[in-house]
Design a protein that fits this description.
CATH architecture of chain B: Alpha-Beta Complex
Largest interface: A-B, 45 and 59 residues
CATH class of one domain in chain A: Mainly Alpha
Strand order of the largest sheet of chain A: 1-2
CATH superfamily of chain B: Amidase signature (AS) domain
Order of helices and strands of chain A: HHHEE
Largest sheet of chain B: 11 strands, mixed
Oligomer: heterodimer
Order of helices and strands of chain B: HHEHEHEHEHEEHHEHEHHHHEHHEEH
Structural class of chain A: mainly alpha
Distance between the termini of chain A: 35 Å
CATH architecture of one domain in chain A: Orthogonal Bundle
Number of strands of chain B: 11
Number of strands of chain A: 2
Number of domains of chain B: 1
CATH class of chain B: Alpha Beta
Strand order of the largest sheet of chain B: 1-3-2-4-6-5-10-11-9-7-8
Radius of gyration of chain B: 21 Å
Structural class of chain B: alpha/beta
Radius of gyration of chain A: 23 Å
Shape of chain A: flat
Number of helices of chain B: 16
Distance between the termini of chain B: 26 Å
CATH topology of chain B: Amidase signature (AS) enzymes
CATH topology of one domain in chain A: Histone, subunit A
Strand content of chain B: 5-15%
Strand content of chain A: under 5%
Shape of chain B: globular
Helix content of chain B: 25-40%
Number of helices of chain A: 3
């Protein structure tokens, strides 16, 4: 791994990092990856998972749910006329 | 003067119903304790401003003659459990001023059953940690020795009960985050079967692993809280319905002489000398009482923690992508959308959180997905398989809860992997979805609590309570 890898990951995860933070993360990740690397080489016998799965999809019925629209709108960083206001995308 | 130290839920119920003291008296006594101790220990981030109102309402019900297990019982809840109209921040700057817009199902239940919610407790940021040192709002301290950690990530909830600032509390356990602080603080901590208690309204960390988990001073208190909260919730798509639960628990054989499986090979090294001795002594007590101790082998479980540190960051990187400065929470100004995302998340998240998000992004990215994530989930399947298989032979799996007693504040902070190793015995239960209980088992030479952990098959919490009470009797 190198700094470029950290920068790519930071871009994917949308997290701003300064130079020191990038270097620290590089060191930390190398340590952690060294620890979990053993997973790559473990021989895994055929899994025959007996899944106890069942379908929980329900009918699309409209039911009243209590929540405070007001309290949601009040916490928008920026709003206008009760709508969430965001930066231009196009 | 109410003696908070020796109170249990049963005692409290008796005294409240007999009008020996009122809920307002009881809550006021806890508030006094909090005033004396919380600044130093930092268990609570906030005491809710409506506590006495809640208490008065409970008193009105008691006066009318109402009586049920949790009526008037004071709870502390971890800072990742939503309580409508109240702040909830997951120990993070990115949610510092966020106010819950709905009640989590567990809070709804507690309110319905008359419990008193005293306040929200400190935690490692977004539940990432084993020492409650990564919170954006200060470290928390162990009431047995304030130079030591209480454990984490649910440290605050543990301190609240151990420090007599609440009678019982709720935390969440994703890989030991309730069992490990229970161990460090001399408490009982139960991680329920995955799907037993609703995750609706719990700020998610690893949603295939998280469970709301109670702390108590004794097994019966934890049992009461578990029974009050363990029910099907249609709002949680991973909640298991009642019929299925019965199906699982009916498979449990009831016996007087338990068969306890100990995977000795998993702790040949890395466990503190005193912890190991204490564990052997505890096991001997069971053997002397007629239980059979079986040496079991769990070959894949040896890799639980490594599998966990791939699966959990992967889930974390997805779950925390919602914190983007757009709709709520900490938001930095930026020139464009991308800048707002990058700056809000860069500034709003702490070091450990950033570390795990990037790790998760890495193991899920093209080229690494097969080597890491895909293999980890296969290993998880094998771990689950071998545990289910071993339960055909034994009723319980026993291990020490943690490899050491509470360590010093500041220790392990610069070595992430050393910190992760604290949870080496916790991981199998979260990966397999089985219930596990941490029980106080004595003290070490420094006077710090030690703990033993028992695991049982899915939905067999009742047998954990049974063996827990048996162990409490041994220690009397």
């Amino acid at each position: 791994m190198d700094i470029k890898d950290v920068e790519n990951l930071a871009e994917l995860a949308k997290i701003d990092l300064n130079k020191d933070e990038k270097e620290q993360i590089l060191k930390d990740m190398e340590n952690i990856l060294k620890y979990v690397k053993i997973i790559e080489n473990i021989k895994i016998e055929q899994t025959n998972p007996k899944y106890n799965l069942y379908n929980i999809w329900r009918e699309d019925k409209i039911e009243p749910i209590e929540f405070s629209k007001d309290s949601i709108i009040r916490q928008f960083p920026d709003s206008q006329d009760g709508f969430l206001k965001v930066k231009k995308i196009l | 003067m109410i003696n908070l130290k020796n109170l249990t839920i049963t005692e409290t119920r008796k005294k409240l119903d007999a009008k020996e003291f009122s809920v307002v008296d009881l809550v006021s006594a806890y508030l006094d304790e909090i005033k004396n101790k919380n600044f130093e220990l930092n268990a609570y981030l906030e005491i809710y401003d409506d506590v006495l109102t809640q208490a008065k309402m409970a008193d009105e019900k008691i006066i009318k003659g109402e009586s049920y297990p949790l009526l008037g019982i004071p709870f502390a809840i971890k800072d990742n459990i939503l309580f409508e109209g109240h702040r909830v921040s997951a120990g993070s700057k990115i949610l510092e001023n966020y106010i819950a817009v709905y009640d989590s199902t567990v809070v709804k239940e507690l309110k319905k059953q008359g419990a008193i919610l005293i306040g929200r407790t400190n935690m490692d940021e977004f539940a990432m940690g084993s020492s409650t040192q990564t919170s954006a709002f200060g470290v928390s301290r162990n009431p047995y020795d304030i130079s030591r950690v209480p454990g984490g990530s649910s440290g605050g909830s543990a301190i609240a009960v151990a420090g007599n600032m609440a009678l019982v509390s709720l935390g969440t356990d994703t890989c030991g985050s309730v069992r490990q602080p229970a161990s460090f603080c001399g408490l009982v901590g139960l991680k329920p079967t995955y799907g037993a208690i609703s995750r609706n309204g719990i700020i998610a960390m690893g949603n295939s692993l998280d469970q709301v988990s109670p702390f108590g001073k004794n097994v019966y208190d934890v049992e009461i809280v578990f029974n009050a909260l363990s029910k099907y919730d249609p709002m949680d798509s991973t909640s298991v319905d009642d019929a299925k639960r019965k199906e699982f628990s009916s498979k449990l054989k009831t016996s007087i002489a338990f068969k306890i499986g100990v995977p000795w090979h998993l702790f040949e090294k890395g466990v503190d000398f005193e912890v190991m001795n204490n564990f052997k002594e505890s096991i001997k007590k069971f053997k002397d009482s007629g239980c059979e101790i079986v040496d079991i082998k769990l070959p894949y479980s040896k890799y639980s923690l490594e599998a966990y540190y791939i699966i959990m960051p992967a889930e974390v990187s997805t779950n925390l992508s919602r914190f983007d400065g757009m709709r709520y929470g900490f938001s930095e100004k930026g020139e464009n959308l991308r800048e707002i995302y990058m700056k809000s998340r860069g500034k709003g998240f702490g070091k450990e959180v950033r570390r795990r998000i990037l790790l998760g992004t890495y193991v899920l990215s093209h080229g690494y997905y097969d080597a890491y994530y895909n293999r980890a989930i296969k290993i998880r399947e094998k771990i689950k398989e071998e545990i289910i298989e071993v339960f055909k032979d034994v009723d319980f799996i026993a291990t020490p809860t943690t490899p050491t007693s509470a360590f010093k504040l500041g220790e392990k902070l610069n070595d992430p992997v050393a910190m992760y190793l604290c949870d080496i015995f916790a991981a199998p239960a979260n990966l397999a979805g089985i219930p596990a209980i941490a029980l106080p088992s004595g003290k070490d030479k420094k006077g710090l609590p030690l703990s033993i952990q028992f695991m049982a098959p899915h939905f067999c919490e009742n047998s954990l309570f049974e063996i827990g009470k048996k162990f409490e009797n041994f220690l009397k």
